[in-house]
Amino acid sequence: MPAAAAAPPNPNVLQLAPRLRGLVSFPSSYSSSSPFSNRLRLRLPRAASMSAEARVPVAPPAHPTYDLKAVINLALSEDAGDRVLIFQYESDTLGIIFTPSGDVSCLATIPSDVKAEATFIAKEDGVVAGISLADMIFKQVDPSLKVEWFESDGNYVHKGLQFGRVYGCARNIIVAERVVLNFMQRMSGIATMTKAMADAAHPACILETRKTAPGLRLVDKWAVLIGGGKNHRIGLFDMVMIKDNHISVAGGITNAMKFVDRFLAKEKLALPVEVETRTLQEVKDLLEYAAENNTSLTRIMLDNMVVPLGNGDIDVSMLKDAVELINGRFETEASGNVTIDTVKKIGETGVTYISSGALTHSVKALDISLKIDTELALQVGRRTNRA
């Protein structure tokens, strides 16, 4: 703690923020070159860290309109708010900072020039995900923060493991803390479940669905990739997927497929096409159409052909029959009643893919913390069996 703490901002001048916002351009996070910023005192790492060059990050899925930085800014803004802080810097100099640090707790307790080191601790076993995204968040909050990792996205971590550190301005670390952890915990939960299901489903590939958190689809699907799964369609734009309601409105599965082939030919579009089938008769009708026409069909979904039994087991005989009917002419995808307990038996039927909405719509987050007092955190963790 410095001998003389900087004077806290006058709360009355915070009311000037709305008027100043239209007159002055404020960066989203102040630079280390600013006279009002904190200069980072870099320390040598105390353990061998994994450099950014050594890590091979898993890239997020491509999307034509998704702005990941805007999603991060929204998360920061909803947590800390955007406030213009006007205060006396040193003697009579008036300082102005625009920062996502509307964190009144930090402003009240932590002088602006205090530096800190915080450690990431896994509080349960699982696959860590969101490290690359965490780097982006810290950079958007404060580019001068120094982050180092001892694990990479997709690695399995054990309860109590210290797998990363961040150094720099204490206020900015704490401002970023909850947003970083919220993303990482959700992504790690998705990656952990994906890894377990992908291993059990082999040789079939595990897919997620569009049952993602609104606004976080790319993040959720990124976590699936980190966990060893593959992405289904990103949205409504990158695959033609004829589902039950389309079939009902079109007047049957043959009509629906015919309309799609005509549309793609007219618009000169080359897109993968998947059709959902619910009965063996629909599979037969679709195969008959494909045998008699030049079609764009690429994959057949076999929906709810896994039947739960009273004893907790499943009957996959209908699914096997459908796979045998298709006989490798098209990719196949099993959907419905897919859990960690059923996915192995489903994968043994010969389907190409298995999709599960549960990977993203109801996944349990992996417990991760970011602590400045690591020893006390581990002591408490051991007391509560979380370290």
From TrEMBL:
GO terms for biological process: NAD+ biosynthetic process; quinolinate catabolic process. One of its GO terms (molecular function) is nicotinate-nucleotide diphosphorylase (carboxylating) activity. GO terms for cellular component: chloroplast. Residues 103-188 form the Quinolinate phosphoribosyl transferase N-terminal domain. The keyword Glycosyltransferase applies. Transmembrane segments: none annotated. Keywords: Glycosyltransferase, Pyridine nucleotide biosynthesis, Transferase. Its EC number is 2.4.2.19. It holds the Pfam family QRPTase_C. Residues 190-371 form the Quinolinate phosphoribosyl transferase C-terminal domain. Pathway: Cofactor biosynthesis; NAD(+) biosynthesis; nicotinate D-ribonucleotide from quinolinate: step 1/1. Signal peptide: none annotated. Belongs to the NadC/ModD family. This is nicotinate-nucleotide diphosphorylase (carboxylating). It comes from Oryza sativa subsp. indica.
